[in-house]
Amino acid sequence: MDGELVDWEDAKIHVLTHSLHYGTGVFEGIRAYETTSGPAVFRLREHIARLLRSAHILAMETPYGAEQLCEAVRATVRASGLQACYIRPLIYLGYGEMGLNPLLSPVNVSIAVWPWGAYLGDAGMEKGIRLKVSSWARHDSRSMPTAAKATGMYINSSLAKVEAVRAGYDEALMMTTDGYCSEGTGENIFLVRDGVILTPPNSAVGALEGITSASVITLARDLGYEVSEQLLRRPDLYVADEVFLTGTAAEVVPVGSVDDRVVGTGEPGPVTRKIQSAYFAAVRGETARYESWLDRVG
Ligand code: PPE
Predict the structure, then answer these.
(1) Tens-of-pLDDT digits for all 298 residues of the chain?
(2) Is 107's C-beta closer than 6 angstroms to any atom of ligand 1?
């Protein structure tokens, strides 16, 4: 927290923390995986760059540079002694002035790490999850900065998640106000149709530009698949041969059904399986070609 290593129990803040009241924080979700040469952080520089972009969008002056933040992430993972973990950097407006003007509050930075297993469950990862199109539309970029991974933005995801879970589904997919597929509550979406991989143009549909999504596009093309970024409508989900979600926490998750319509055979398809295994090989440092995606904690 703000440059100091703090024990888990002592990682506390004041109740008048500005970001707690107004949702004015920005964060990242990163994973470190166990490799034969110790824990390695996946695409650390890209995550820190996005964190700083999010802060810039919210007009927050981050007191640390990218290099310092990368080193702080490595130091936190090292201190935790964990071989694999989830990493949550957060830049937030602290305790200072109350009232909406964020420019009067101090900018604080914290990095937390903890072990986090399969985000949508082990069964979901193996057999595919149940996805439901949400009645909540994804933010429109005219009212919220959809490129920023900002804490307050997640009310949108939270509402969609509650609706889906209460209705018995694993995850929600949000559409744009124009009815195009945008993203899951914490994941980007991919379809496979006739051997071609399709995914929405994330910026155009107000989805976060996922780092997992970008990695999966590279992996897929390197495996010889054609990947096309195009606008997708709800029925495209129903007739896809395969559907899968990507995200740091979620990793690569097969979708077994959308709105109770079985996707393909109902089992994770061959393309999804190949992408899943290529992804896990890359993050675990088993593919020399993607070594530059890993930052060893040392
Ligand atoms: N869309 C949203 C809305 C999102 O939150 C994430 C990550 C993604 C797409 C995928 O982005 P990337 O991780 O760069 O591939 N969601 C983070 C938070 C999840 C949470 O429950 O907290 C994550 O996966 O870490």
Answers:
(1) 999 999 999 999 999 999 999 999 999 999 999 999 999 999 999 999 999 999 999 999 999 999 999 999 999 999 999 999 999 999 999 998 899 999 999 999 999 999 999 999 999 999 999 999 999 999 999 999 999 999 999 999 999 999 999 999 999 999 999 999 999 999 999 999 999 999 999 999 999 999 999 999 999 999 999 999 999 999 999 999 999 999 999 999 999 999 999 999 999 999 999 999 999 999 999 999 999 999 999 8
(2) no
Domain ranges of the chain: 8-114, 122-283
Phi and psi angles of residue 16, each rounded to the nearest 5 degrees, phi first: -95, 20
Cβ of 247 below 6 Å from ligand 1 = yes
What letter would DSSP give residue 291?
A: G
Cut 0.90: pTM above it: yes
- CA atoms of 253 and 122, how far apart (whole Å): 10
CATH topology classification for 8-114: D-amino Acid Aminotransferase; Chain A, domain 1 (3.30.470)
End-to-end CA distance of the chain: 21
268 in contact with ligand 1, CB cutoff 6 A: no
Distance 187 CA to ligand 1 centre (A): 5
Looking from the CA of residue 213, the nearest atom of ligand 1 is 15
